[in-house]
Amino acid sequence: MNEIYEAIKTSAIRIRELIEYDDTGYSSSINTTGDTQLKIDIKSDLVIEEEFRKIPSIKEIISEEKENKTSLHDNGIYTIGYDPLDGSSLIDVDLSVGSIFGIYEGGSNGAHLKAAVYVVYGPRVELVIAESDVKMYRLNQKNEFVYMHDIKLKEKGKLNAPGGTQQGWSKSHKKLIDDIFQDGYRLRYSGGMVPDLHQILLKGGGLFSYPGTTDVPKGKLRMIFEVFPFAFVFEQAGGAAINDKNQRILDLVPSHPHDTTPCFFGSKKEIERVMACYE
Ligand code: AHG
Ligand code: MN
Ligand code: MN
C-alpha cells in the first residue's frame, strides 16, 4: 500500500503545479457524465495514470475522466477508483479543489474498499489517508508530506453543507435542512466536495448532503471515485455515511463505473437526523 501512497503524493505535487501555472481552458471532449472536460482534468488524469503504471500491485484503474476501466498489471491486486481533479471549474475563481482515491481489493463495491485518500489543493496542500484511522499530512517547502495529526469527528458538529439545486429538493429534504439551520448550524458550502468535507472533518463535524433532486434523482456524486472514498473516511473518523434509503453507503453495489447516489456524510448525530427524515 505504501508505494501507492507515494505515487499519490508524487501525482499531487505534479497536479499542484498544473493548477498553479497551467491552462485551464476547455478541451474539445466530453466525459461520461456529459461535462466538457477541462484540459487540466485530462492532464491530471494522465499524471496519475503515469504514476500508477509504475506500481506493480495495481491491477486496474477507474478514472472519472475515462469511460471504462484501464488494466495496468495482470498480477496486481488493487483497483483504484479516482477523481483526478474534483471541482476543477472552481480553479478559475481561485477556490480550493481536490483529488480523490479509493483503493479497492477484489472488486469496486463499497465493501471492497481497503483505504481512501484525498488531497486538498488550497492555500496549502493537505493529504488525508484513511485506513483503520485517518491521518492528515501537509506539504512543506521541500515537497514532503509531513504528518500533522489524526482526524476524529465529534458526536455532533456545527456545520451544514447542503448540495444540489434547492429548487429540486423534496419537501422533506428542505425541512431537514431548514431544521438544521434553525438549530444554529452554520452554512459552509464552496461547491467543491473535497474542501467542504475536509472542513467538516477538521472542525469536528456537521453534515454534507447531496440528495436526489428533480433534475438529478440519483444525485450527482459518483460512487466509485467520490462517494465511497469519503464514506470510508467518515466512518474511520467516527462518523457515518448513508444514502436516501438509510442504507450505509459502503454496502452499495454500483452496476456501472459512473453510477451516482444521493449521499449524506456527517458525524453521528447529524446522520441520525437524516435517518429520521428519510425513514
Ligand atoms: P466535478 O468532479 O464534476 O468537478 O464535480 C464537482 C462536484 C463536487 O465537488 C461538488 O460537491 C459538486 O460537484 C457540486 O455540485 P453542484 O454544482 O450541483 O452544487
Ligand atoms: Mn468530481
Ligand atoms: Mn473531476
Overview of this protein structure:
The chain has two domains: 2-150, Fructose-1,6-Bisphosphatase, Chain A, domain 1 (2-Layer Sandwich); 159-278, D-Maltodextrin-Binding Protein, domain 2, CATH 3.40.190.80. It is 29% helix and 28% strand. The protein is built from six helices and 15 strands. It has helices at residues 2-21, 39-53, 171-182, 193-202, 223-236, 268-278; strands spanning 26-30, 36-38, 58-63, 70-71, 78-86, 97-105, 113-121, 125-130, 134-139, 145-150, 159-162, 186-187, 206-210, 240-242, 263-266. The strands form three sheets. The chain has an eight-stranded mixed sheet with strand order 4-3-5-6-7-8-9-10, with helices on both faces. The chain has a five-stranded mixed sheet with strand order 12-11-13-15-14, sandwiched between helices. A two-stranded antiparallel ribbon has the order 1-2. α1 runs antiparallel to α2 (39-53). Bound molecules: 2,5-anhydro-1,6-di-O-phosphono-D-glucitol and manganese (II) ion (2 copies). 2,5-anhydro-1,6-di-O-phosphono-D-glucitol binds at residues 35, 83, 86-88, 163-164, 191-193, 220.
Question: Which features characterize this protein?
Answer:
Fructose-1,6-Bisphosphatase, Chain A, domain 1, 2 domains, 28% strand, alpha+beta, 8-stranded mixed sheet, 279 residues, 6 helices, 15 strands, binds manganese (II) ion, binds 2,5-anhydro-1,6-di-O-phosphono-D-glucitol, 5-stranded mixed sheet, D-Maltodextrin-Binding Protein, domain 2
Judged by helices, strands and strand pairing, the structural class is alpha+beta
Mean pLDDT: 95
Count of DSSP helices? Answer: 6
Strand order of the largest sheet: 4-3-5-6-7-8-9-10
Q: State the low-pLDDT regions, or none.
A: none
Query: Helix proportion of residues, in percent?
Result: 25-40%
> What fraction of residues sit in β-strands?
25-35%
Shape call: globular
| Main beta sheet strand tally, sense and closure | 8 strands, mixed
Question: How many discrete structural domains?
Answer: 2
How many strand units? 15
Molecules bound to protein: 2,5-anhydro-1,6-di-O-phosphono-D-glucitol, manganese (II) ion
CATH top level of the largest domain is Alpha Beta
What is the second-level CATH architecture of the largest domain? 2-Layer Sandwich
